[in-house]
Amino acid sequence: MRDDPMTRGKILVAHKNRIFLDALTAACAQSRLEVAPLDTGEAILSTLADTDDFAAIILDYHLIEEGGISALESLIENPAGLPVLIFGGTIPDWLLRLALNNGLMGVIPENMRLSALPSLLDVVLSGVVYAAPHWLREADKSERATRLSPREDAAVCRASAGQTNAQIAIALGCNLATVKGLMRSAGRKLGAVSRVQTCVAYAKIAEIAGPRSVSSADPTPLPGAARHLRENPSETQRV
């Protein structure tokens, strides 16, 4: 008779919705699965450090999204080597695929019954990655996972190369407000909350879709805007 994976330890579940946490805890209790619930991301690593009887981590990415890719990688590479699963629908698609490539062990479907969670954990704790087939296949390198528009792509590509908003505005032939808008909209699509996170996310995607040179990222500039900046150089100083 094989060992029951559920006897290996309790499950650390981090989710921002306390009501959901209570419902999940109750559902797992029916399968004799002990859950340690958390509703803040900051407490995850400290909780892991305080005890060694956990078997797995289930995460709502929203709790750590301010920390970006590095926060997720820190959890996946946790010192205890615990398998990490993520609730589907809480993480950008491109980052989910990258996380699976880097060791994420499971994606919990949004429509899955809570009562099915113990069975899913049984699969993961036996060493099998649980995710829909389309997440596990290699990404098509000709397809950019982010769906950035050409101008968003051009702006972030140049920002990732170290250019300021003023330099990007001149290169793309637009004004500073447009560049800032492009960076904000690209950041939202990438699940980033800062310029630095947006650039880091873009660099990570380049590993999947293939890097782009700054020159190849330029869409057709807007001559009128470029002329306006040349004639009003003071505007290029407000970054």
UniProtKB/TrEMBL annotation:
<feature type="domain" description="Response regulatory">
    <location>
        <begin position="10"/>
        <end position="125"/>
    </location>
</feature>
<dbReference type="Pfam" id="PF00196">
    <property type="entry name" value="GerE"/>
</dbReference>
<dbReference type="InterPro" id="IPR016032">
    <property type="entry name" value="Sig_transdc_resp-reg_C-effctor"/>
</dbReference>
<dbReference type="GO" id="GO:0003677">
    <property type="term" value="F:DNA binding"/>
</dbReference>
<dbReference type="InterPro" id="IPR000792">
    <property type="entry name" value="Tscrpt_reg_LuxR_C"/>
</dbReference>
<keyword id="KW-0238">DNA-binding</keyword>
<feature type="compositionally biased region" description="Basic and acidic residues">
    <location>
        <begin position="228"/>
        <end position="239"/>
    </location>
</feature>
<dbReference type="InterPro" id="IPR011006">
    <property type="entry name" value="CheY-like_superfamily"/>
</dbReference>
<dbReference type="InterPro" id="IPR036388">
    <property type="entry name" value="WH-like_DNA-bd_sf"/>
</dbReference>
<dbReference type="InterPro" id="IPR001789">
    <property type="entry name" value="Sig_transdc_resp-reg_receiver"/>
</dbReference>
<dbReference type="GO" id="GO:0006355">
    <property type="term" value="P:regulation of DNA-templated transcription"/>
</dbReference>
<keyword id="KW-0597">Phosphoprotein</keyword>
<dbReference type="GO" id="GO:0000160">
    <property type="term" value="P:phosphorelay signal transduction system"/>
</dbReference>
<feature type="modified residue" description="4-aspartylphosphate">
    <location>
        <position position="60"/>
    </location>
</feature>
<feature type="region of interest" description="Disordered">
    <location>
        <begin position="212"/>
        <end position="239"/>
    </location>
</feature>
<dbReference type="InterPro" id="IPR051015">
    <property type="entry name" value="EvgA-like"/>
</dbReference>
<protein>
    <submittedName>
        <fullName>DNA-binding NarL/FixJ family response regulator</fullName>
    </submittedName>
</protein>
